[in-house]
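Service request form, structural biology core

Requester: graduate student, group of Dr. S.
Request type: structure prediction, single chain
Budget code: on file
Notes: please return the result as structure tokens.

Sequence provided:
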Amino acid sequence: MRMDFDTTKIIAICIISIFIFASVSIYSENMPSGSSDINVTVNGSTLWNGAWNTTVISLISSNQDKNWQSLWNATVQSIIDDNNLSSWNPIWNSTVSELISNYLANYSWESESSYTIFYDSSDSLYKAKNGGTGQIDYSSTNVTYICEQVRSSLTANRKWFETILLKGSFTLSGSILMDSWTILDLRQAEIILPVGATYPAIRNTNQTNGNTKMSVFGGEINGSRGEGNNNVNAKGIYINNNGVDMEPSRVIEVFDTVIFNVYGNAFDIQLNTGDSLNLENTKCENRGGNDCTRIAYNLKAGDSQLTTIDANSYYENLVLEGGTFQIINSYFGGGGGSGSSNATVHFKGNVRGQMTNCLVDASYKHAILLENSDWNHFVNVRVRGKDVLTANNTWSVFRLVNSKNNIIEACYGGRYDTVVTDFYKYGVEETGTSDINMVVGSNFRDIGTIGIIVVGANTKVACSWNGTSWIS
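Core staff response, request fulfilled:
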């Protein structure tokens, strides 16, 4: 039988057709509920699941299949010809790109959540919408009550994540409690601890036997210190596993969360040696008052990573105890208030890890203090002593107490402002049984007459400035 068109073109266009149908099918299957009316306009034509299928069905029905192939091929060939073939791929890619962009723009995060908690201004009630049924399961004037009802409604003893999403501004009357295998999505939420609060904004439920697999995403937590809240138990996020050794996997993750104006510790996470912790793009801020936040990050964990954290507290910015930590691309500002007994960054005991590409702005006492902590590596850490309070001739940029096998490499420390000279007495100070440490390629300027002091017979200093001269 004689064919009306070239066999090669048929094969090529059939392949294109299959790709188009497969792509449309994939997008259709992954569209969120209620999105069938979404349209995307490309080259003057409205395309999407409903409209696209209607066009295809119409062509097939009106021609009883007999001319379908030639008509379809002619349509595709027309697009190719009109665009000189070479621009076919970019046009198709542009179509797909618009479909994906429109999909994401209209995607409802609620479809991913077990429950969505929100405030309904029409009747002044907080409500919880079931992500599975779409029904309102709970409503109340008390959002803490709603959170607790939702938590209790999640699958008991589960080994998979279930998500609670909060949308809006919420003033708590008690803590938001988290069980194991829970995601708390605060990306569209502000959590407020009221004046007089004696509880943390978020805490784990089982502080006797411990919890595992908990994640917090986004949000702001306001501790109301500026309004007069002054209880040390009014913390931001408080996770305490009470020394219980959980499974050797990540216990808690916190991403993109800001905690400000809490009177207690902002991030207070006490885990065990077998636990793991991941903090990324988190922040502690003081937005009013000079004595906000006792400790910005008070952490104890087995295997932890802190990436791009930003700490600014009145007392200590970072306190680590018992664990292996990676601290990367982070800032620690202020800290060391008059009530602090230690330093801006404090390795409190049995800490091993690495601190890389970090900036410490210290205003009182030692900048970085290591106590009974061995095998730590500081690389490209810059310390600036700020003249917020009167300088003291006993403070150090790095102070090592009973600590061994630590390396201070390519670090800088000295005065930041120009009013007070000799803000620090020492660039590096060893005390107690400290030994076998190394200071290399570091620079300590504008400090006391003794820049680097060591007591360990095996501690080495090389290629570093000790405040008055180079040590090679």
